[in-house]
Structures are given as C-alpha cells and as structure tokens.
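Subject: BTB domain-containing protein structure
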Amino acid sequence: MSPIRRKATSLVFAEKSTSTDAGLTAKQELLDSVKSDLKITCHPHTFHVHRSIVCPRSEYFASALSGEFKEAVSGEIELDDDPRLVNGMLEYLYTLDYCVEDKQISNADSAATATSGEVENGLSSPLSSGSYDHLSFHILMYSLAERLFIHGLKRLSKQNVERELSQRVDGDTFFAAILEIYKTTPEHDRGLRDLIVNMTIKHLALLRKGENRLTLSLESDIFTQAPKYSHELLIALMDKWTRHLSD
C-alpha cells in the first residue's frame, strides 16, 4: 500500500483589487511557497505561509512560534478546523479581508477526483466536501478568529454577520443563526451573542409575524433549544422595558 501523501496547498484567494502595495506584496509572498517559513496543517491540507505576516496579526501564532515551543522549533502548526475557514483566515492575515466564493460553499468535487499528480503539486482544490451558507461561514469565521486571537478578523466577520442577518431577518436562517452562534462562541465573548439578542429585539414584531403571517422566523421552539439565548433575551427585554418606564 502506498503511503498517504498530504496536499501541499496554496490559498485560493478571490481575485479582487488591493488598494496598497503592501497588500499586493503580501499576497504575492503567500503564493510563493519557496520563501515560506511556516506550515499550517489542517488535514489533509498544508498551507505554506510566512511568520512575518501571520504573527503580527494573531496573538495565537505569535505565542506558539516564540521561545522553545515545539511549533517554533518544527515550523509547523496543526489546526483541526475546516480548510475553507483556515483559507479565509489566512487570506485576512495577508490582505485584511476575506471572501466567501461560491466554490467555498459548494461541494468540492474536484478535490475528491483530483489525480495524485495534482495533489502532490498543490493543483487540486484545498476545499473539503460539504457546504456552508454565507451566514454560517461568517459565524464560524468569527469563532475561529476568537480562538486564534485575531481581533481585526473578529470585527470584520461580526460586520459580515450583521449584514447577512439584516438582509435575512425574516428568513429561516435567523433561527439557525441563533443556534450556531450559541454553539460556537464561548459565553464570555459577547460579540455575536449581544448582536443576535439586540437584533431580535429590534425586529421582534417581524420575526414573530413571519413573511406570510403563517410562519414564524422566531419559532417558540428556540426558547427550549437555546435556553441561554432565551435567558439573555428576557433580561435584555426587561432592561429595555424598565428604561422605558423610567423615561
């Protein structure tokens, strides 16, 4: 039996204009794996990157690659996250932005059917099978940024979550977003949790009415499925009502 070979992956950045020469240089460096001095592995993909780029913008990478930690010595860090998320996270570290392309949220059949030569040369898609909704992708990106201490990416992904929610506040995805936010973010991190609670209050009438008055975007089941959300929503509503009575 031949040995399993790990994919040497280049990031699949979306083609978009970059406003600064520094951004262009960083992007060019990323695509040049010969000059890389760090490998970030998330099975079965390996991303070749540069410490000088990722460390200043991520406290996690800066800490892991300092001193005598094994990662600093080996020059390799392993992450258990989906390669699509890691790809977006690294794109942000190099360009201060990230994109969710259609190929990032659709089934990556090309990866499953790639030849051994394509895999070895990093020519196949680094994306896993499965699919992400855009809103779900941004929520998971926020969670990854929180764990890797990438503060700028947290702010950006939160803005993206808010934009997506604002556009789909009366859709089925609002219910799913509540569950995903409370599943993937720690209790001490208030960014997305406060956002979803505040948006619920702001759009409560619409959420409880639904698009056609027969369906509810905020179904009653949510209060048993997400008790922490229900608790925080109740407190926020009481605080708002108390302020209203005091005015």
